[in-house]
Amino acid sequence: MYDILRAEKLAENIYLFDVKAPLVSRKCLPGQFVIVKTDEKSERIPLTICDYDREKETVTLVVQVVGASSFRMAQLKTGEAFADIVGPLGRASEFISEDPETLSKKKVLFVAGGLGTAPVYPQVKWFHENGFHADAIVGAKTKDLVIMEKEMSEVAENLYITTDDGTYGRHGMVTQVISDLVAEGKQYDACVAIGPMIMMKFVCKLTKELGIPTIVSMNPIMVDGTGMCGACRLTVDGQVKFACVDGPEFDGHKVDFDEAMKRSAMYKTEEGRAFLAAKEGDTHHGGCGNCGGDK
Amino acid sequence: MDVLHKVPVREQDPKVRAHNFEEVCYGYNAEEAVEEAQRCLGCKNARCMQGCPVAINIPEFIAKIKDGDFEGAYYVISEASSLPAVCGRVCPQECQCEGKCVRGVKGEPVAIGKLERFVADWAREHGIVPKKAEKMNGHKVAVIGSGPAGLSCAGDLAKLGYSVTIFEALHEPGGVLTYGIPEFRLPKSAVVQKEIDNVRALGVEIVCNAIIGKSITIDELMADGYEAVFIGSGAGLPKFMGIPGEQANGVFSANEYLTRSNLMKAFKEDYATPIAAGKKVAVVGGGNVAMDAARTALRLGAEVYIVYRRGEEELPARVEEVHHAKEEGIIFKLLTNPTEILVDDKGWVAGMKCVEMELGEPDESGRRRPVVKPNSEFVLDVDTVIMSLGTSPNPLISSTTEGLETSKWKCIIASEENGQTSKEGVFAGGDAVTGAATVILAMEAGRAGARGIHEYLQNK
What we know:
Helix content of chain B: 25-40%
Number of domains of chain A: 3
Mean pLDDT of chain A: 88
Distance between the termini of chain B: 56 Å
Shape of chain B: globular
Structural class of chain A: alpha/beta
Order of helices and strands of chain A: EEHEEEEHEEHEHEHEEHEHEEEHEHH
Structural class of chain B: alpha/beta
Radius of gyration of chain B: 22 Å
CATH architecture of the largest domain in chain A: 3-Layer(aba) Sandwich
Number of strands of chain B: 16
CATH superfamily of the largest domain in chain A: Nucleotide-binding domain of ferredoxin-NADP reductase (FNR) module
CATH topology of the largest domain in chain A: Rossmann fold
Helix content of chain A: 25-40%
Oligomer: heterodimer
């Protein structure tokens, strides 16, 4: 069992857990993920690691409630435990192995959408702790759904918050902010975008036009997460890749997002749900690209 | 007694079992087992033993059954096999022990597999467990993966007095016995878990949720006091055909389909993992895994086709599995090869375009090469396609272990005789070395690895 040392509600339907997981916390790096299983009968769900403490042997996970499985997870309280956590899985972000000299000269822009703020945070924090500079844009539907603002402001050189409805920070989508910053004369050598697939798709469309290389973190459906089942396959640059072992981060300008969104909708579309309703009930846990529940 | 034929084994009615996940074969009872055992000639030069990858003393255990000493028979088997209840169920006996049986020259061979299963089941029902080493030898060994290779390696080492820890990446031990082979062929709680408990009873510790290469590296294990490591990490990434439409919703690897059903128990209502079972399912491939996927889909309510590009004789699956699949109503589309998966506007499978094949000249594998029959294209009306084409090796261990050599197919290179790899103290066996093969061959490699580790640590 994996003890929950802190369970906290960050926003409506968004929950944070600090979990004791020594095998993960000792080794994990920004960009990696874990597979979590709430109890005996639950699904295995991939969650990007949002923070870690090597001394306390904990990892921080953030979950958004979008269906039965994440709802079940959100019920867990401090002092309770997850049945299973395995990781760290996937490859760490590429800049971790990049030459520090080269990286120090780079201006990197992180773009987080909704729950994507959670996986973006450890990356920006890593930049900050290693003396590199990064700006961050955090976008949310509305003010109440902006998460981890304080933590982000402590590690990002410049933090730009934006809400779709203009209730907080700038008004508009993250793509609007990117365009505005570039128009204001900001120059970026690289971009990392994490959030709902539809957001990543449009960020990539824009950064391609702007000529900014962009990394995205894909969160497709997974079962084992260790390179066995192939459920997480996606097409990158015309080739089949497995997000769990080849990713989860890929060159965003080469990812086939339309295909990835269709695949993520596998158990989520009307047809899919109707097809499965009789057997499984509502099992939606994000990843459809429509509900905003990704990441 | 009809000496030319096996004592028939009782099975669940095909029409009934096509709709449930209960075990197909009931196995022998004591009376039937003794009767079948009497067919054994007790050959001095036992050819059956040469056919057994783990070299069970077959005439001796069968002689014990004849005498009604089932407990004694169990101890004979457990000297060589850590998983007799599993092997009795899933070994391809027709081309191993039974294939060599002298009885088979004229008539049917002795039902060695069914006898092994009887002994293992009897022992389990009577609370008999294998004998633990009398004294530990103080050496620590790590085993990676708790599938057939890892369990048999760990079991053998534990019997020799080693302290063995198995590291398993998934949340439950058993490897392919747990995630791959279906309940109706290999019951999980009644058989697999009990066999694993028996390995634990030998003193083996199993740590789940520990993925070697990620959570811990092999070098870290060795720095942590493990004097030798056995890699039995199993098969890897599923292969796909590379035809158009394979990324459509409703196209699965057999591994995914079976993992959802077996490990995650998607077939049970109270488990949360979903499975898009399909109404009309094509399983592409002809091996045991293809049969398992097809028979699982059938039990989940689908009409199921096996699509295989060669003929009946070339089917790599065990004869018994093909026979059971046919009895249950699986439709075999042999000499048929898919060329494209048709996709509807929502991204789901809408059918599978195929061509008919005919067999030409033998190829390098010695099997006759299938060639396309001209103008034979047709569309198979299916909504789900399960690709069962084998796997390619998982890179997690080889890419994180310095000095571990792999072949051009990215399989770990290891000696067949003792499992030794290119890295000192590191041994390997099973699918991670050979690519996808059978449970018993993985067990053989696990035993070889245990011998290799024992020799290595004795001489160190």
